[in-house]
Amino acid sequence: MDLHAWITQQVDLVERLLDEYEWPPSQSEGVRLRCEADRRILARHTLDLDCPYEPACKGCGTYGDQAMSNTENLNDCPELLDLAHAHGLTDGILAGLDRPQPPEPEPRADGWHRGLADSLATPPITTSDVPAALRGPHWKP
């Protein structure tokens, strides 16, 4: 379980306690609004699936010409860390959480995996089968 999943679990617990009337009626509306705000933050700060080389936070954005991630790992997202702190995150809990891994690249539907090495290993195109009518005066086969 990573940090995002841990916070989601904590918000689920608070909402379940709300449904069981564990808060006084005077506080329940404020707690419900807080849970909604937490869910909005969680929806914005998720794993960036467009970043294939690191498990970056989508909500933290990018910088520079190369669109490098501001937060290289979702567990290091300052918004999520602040949110988790409000839900009782300790250093021990944080150390026990899994670190998200970058998403696995999806295989192509046609099964063709062509890379630079494949391009360089392709045999050169030969011109020996060009008809004589198309050959010019300086033809080199």
Overall pLDDT, averaged? 84
| Count of alpha/pi helices | 5
Strand content: under 5%
Q: What proportion of the residues is helical, as a percent range? A: 40-55%
Shape: rod-shaped
End-to-end separation: 63 Å
Radius of gyration: 27 Å
Q: H/E order of the elements? A: HHEEHHH
Give the low-pLDDT segments.
none
Largest sheet: 2 strands, antiparallel
Give the total of beta strands.
2
Structural class: mainly alpha
Adjacency order of strands in the biggest sheet: 1-2
Protein model, in words:
The chain is mostly helical and 141 residues long. The protein has a domain of 94 residues. Helix content is 41%, strand content 3%. The protein is built from 5 helices and 2 strands. It has a two-stranded antiparallel sheet with strand order 1-2. β1 and β2 form a beta hairpin. α1 packs parallel to α3. It is rod-shaped and about 95 Å long. The model has no long low-confidence stretch (mean pLDDT 84).
